[in-house]
Amino acid sequence: MSSTSFTDLLASSGVDCYEQGEDFLRGFYPETNGSGLPKFKTAQPPPLPISQPPQNFAFSSSELLDSPLLLSSSHSLISPTTGAFPFPWQIQSQSQPPNAASALQEETYGVQDLQKKQDPVPPPREFADRVPSYMVVSRNSNDGYGWRKYGQKQVKKSENPRSYFKCTYPNCVSKKIVETASDGQVTEIIYKGGHNHPKPEFTKRPSSSANARRMFNPSSVASDQSESSSISFDYGDLEQKSFKSEYGEIEEEDEQPEIKRQKREGE
DNA sequence: AAGCTTTGACCTATA
DNA sequence: TTATAGGTCAAAGCT
């Protein structure tokens, strides 16, 4: 599969990724079997039980706003003529439609050049400079999901250390690997597996203070500044793609209180 | 007290 | 079969 097929499909599907939930998912399927249905390597996925996919499945405005990359490139996000979404990594960095996951197997979208060129906006480092290192490193949850870091490794193929994250949602096997440069910039994100759940509604999460603090702490915003320089998706091990009907609704997070709290804590 | 990150050790896949 | 690299585990410590 190639990245061109992805955008081609998006273009051919003629969907607006922002506005169309289900259509977005449909259009998101990077590969079809010719009948408009996605190809699945492991098993035929159940039909999407979501008659009205939550908007968070695509983007939340706060996240969009948080990303200077998105802002800086927003003028070219969607082709007015084709409707093609030129930045599939934005979709994936936000969330992975579970059923699209296997179709994205071994798909890699590299956007290093783009990111490096468009990352002149200095992140709000005032937080990162004050908080403990692990808090800084945890700047990775802007996609709305809760991630727990379970390992870090310096790999040979890259001079930057990799951090390994698991989704904190119960029974969710989604993982992501974040490669972070010495200056704190995220140079690569690799998603493995897809979420079998919607974005958690952090206000309802147990121990919401702790989770919310990390999920929406401003330092994560700082990370967002540089995140998505390169995002890869590996859904090879994704088996359980069934969507649970327990769809929570998290449209937009009012992160102002969290930011304030974080500021207090960071001081 | 709960949940998180850190980090060295261990496990596994691959050449 | 062995060496190496990548991925994961789990105890310790932190917020």
Please characterize this protein's 3D structure.
With 267 residues, this protein is an alpha+beta fold. The protein contains 12 helices and 6 strands. It has helices at 3-13, 21-28, 61-66, 68-73, 88-94, 98-101, 112-117, 125-128, 133-137, 208-215, 218-226, 256-266; strands at residues 107-110, 147-154, 161-167, 175-180, 186-192, 230-234. It has a 6-stranded mixed beta sheet. It starts with a helix and ends with a helix. Residues 1-141, 202-228 and 236-267 have low confidence and may be disordered. It binds a DNA duplex (15 and 15 nucleotides) through residues 131-135, 137-138, 148-153, 155-157, 162-164, 168, 177, 206-207, 210-211, 213-214, 265. Residues 142-200 form the WRKY domain.
